[in-house]
Design brief:
This protein has 457 residues and is an alpha/beta fold. The chain is built from 17 helices and 15 strands. Helix content is 41%, strand content 15%. The chain is globular, with a radius of gyration of 22 Å. The chain starts with 5 loop residues before the first helix and ends with a helix.
């Protein structure tokens, strides 16, 4: 059979398990199959083009046809396609990438460990935290605080750092070391008459209470994204992170900054930490590190943490941690070329230049009859649909199907968006032009109007 066979095109995919999909639906109904890409557009097996407003999980920062990234991978494949970075062996590209990341990361006296995915980057950060605390004679300091609704990975440990209780229960995740606090989502979680300042006070009081109840001597780290895309682009209230960091410092709790999505210019700065004024002990990066052209991630730790790891490795004779593809030569070469492009084109600066146009188009939707709230920062926007349910994030009745309908209608119009609950996420490749921004929002508005006409009397 070939892709041209009608029988195959009309069938499902029998053996492939697709994440964030209904498994039966994938088996019975053929998913979208993409065979090419051009700039910010992707092309399906029928030759139809779609403007990808989600940058494929917010990672294809340079779109889908950057020849420099492809050439970098090809050169490294020819020179040295693979060698593991471990046991006192590595390759030049991996060394150079570590040096350059250490120079630009907003982490004091940075040292770098590589992985293949964002999940690994966050998992390694927690693993290093436990290693350090064991060396420091604090083995009970193993609990981690994170925020409900966030997403930090798909491993057993990282999956427990966010999501919801239903996800934790469905996978029977080991949650004994997880402590969860609220997402700083004022629009959905603020109380009637409550100001943002008062809401922030309540969040900090919650954090302090969680620490007190667990015992600060049992807590090793607080894990957070600067902006939670998985919770619908939650932008924290003013002063939130400054106060969180003060509480963490008071109790000697590490701050792990998950920049898997927000790194490499998405917020208008190289890292979201710079946009929101964060001073992390550990920063985790992935996705746009290679423009998503090759799997690679980085766990970037402060010099203070590194020195404890080094001391512990002396007592044991080695640092008993590695990954076969942690620091893959091809991934490192592509990531180096990505850094070259970011610097030569001032990619964060270009995001800042286009952000006003992007924000204007997001904000113009605030009064749409189907829209409850809009949020935007850098090259990311969230349009939360109205709810007729008791919970502002859950729709019932006539609006229950609005999110699914919107995703379907936009796709029919040639636009790929990502729905997070009732929120439409727009975070296209960072190379998008202002004309393409207008095209994206024109299509989105057309879809929004069509769904509103169907659902709102």
């Amino acid at each position: 059979m070939t892709l041209a066979d009608d029988a195959l095109r009309n069938s499902g995919v029998e053996r492939l398990m697709l994440g964030f999909s209904n498994l039966r639906e994938t088996r019975e109904q053929r998913p979208m199959v993409l065979t090419g890409g051009d700039g910010i557009f992707v092309i399906d097996e029928d030759g139809r083009r779609y403007l990808d407003a989600s940058a494929s999980f917010y990672c294809a920062a340079l779109g889908y046809s950057n020849e420099r990234l492809v050439a970098a991978a090809h050169r490294q494949m020819q020179a040295m396609p693979f060698y593991v970075s471990a046991q006192q062996r590595t390759v030049p590209a991996v060394i150079e990438l570590a040096e350059r990341l250490a120079e630009i990361a907003p982490v004091n006296d940075a040292h770098v460990a590589f992985g293949a995915t964002g999940s690994e980057a966050n998992e390694f950060a927690l693993k290093f935290m436990l290693y350090r605390n064991t060396w420091r004679g604090q083995p009970k300091r193993r609990k981690m605080i994170s925020r409900l609704g966030s997403y930090h990975g798909g491993t057993l440990t990282t999956a427990g750092l966010g999501g919801s209780k239903s996800v934790h229960d469905a996978f029977a995740l080991p949650m004994q070391d997880h402590l969860l606090v609220s997402q700083p989502d004022f629009f959905n979680n603020g109380q009637p008459g409550e100001t943002e300042a008062a809401y922030c006070d309540r969040l900090i009081a919650e954090l302090e209470q969680v620490i007190a109840d667990a015992g600060p001597e049992t807590i090793g780290a607080f894990v957070a994204e600067p902006l939670s895309f998985s919770a619908g682009l939650v932008i924290p209230p003013e002063g939130y992170f400054a106060r969180v960091q003060a509480v963490l410092k008071q109790h000697d709790i590490l701050f792990i900054d998950d920049e898997v999505i927000t790194g490499y210019g998405r917020t208008g700065q190289m890292f979201g930490a710079e946009t929101l004024g964060l001073a992390p002990d550990i920063l985790c990066s992935a996705k746009a590190m290679s423009g998503a052209y090759f799997p690679i991630s980085a766990t970037i730790i402060s010099g203070d943490i590194y020195r404890d790891l080094e001391a512990h490795s002396d007592t044991q004779g080695l640092f008993a941690h590695a990954g076969t593809y942690a620091g893959h030569p091809v991934g490192a070469a592509v990531a180096l070329e990505m850094l070259n492009i970011v610097e030569e084109t001032d990619l964060p600066g270009s995001v800042r230049a286009k952000a006003p146009r992007f924000a204007a188009r997001v904000n113009a939707l605030a009064d749409h009859p189907l829209v409850a709230d809009v949020r935007t920062i850098g090259m990311a926007g969230a349009i939360q649909l109205r709810s007729d349910g008791a919970d502002g994030a859950v729709a019932t009745g006539a609006l229950a199907g609005a999110a699914k309908q919107l995703a379907a209608v936009t796709q029919d119009l040639g636009l790929i968006i990502r729905m997070t609950g009732q929120t439409a996420m727009l975070a296209p490749p960072l190379i998008i032009s202002e004309a393409e921004i207008d095209r994206m929002f024109d299509l989105f508005t057309e879809a929004l109007d069509a769904v509103a006409d169907q659902l709102i009397a």
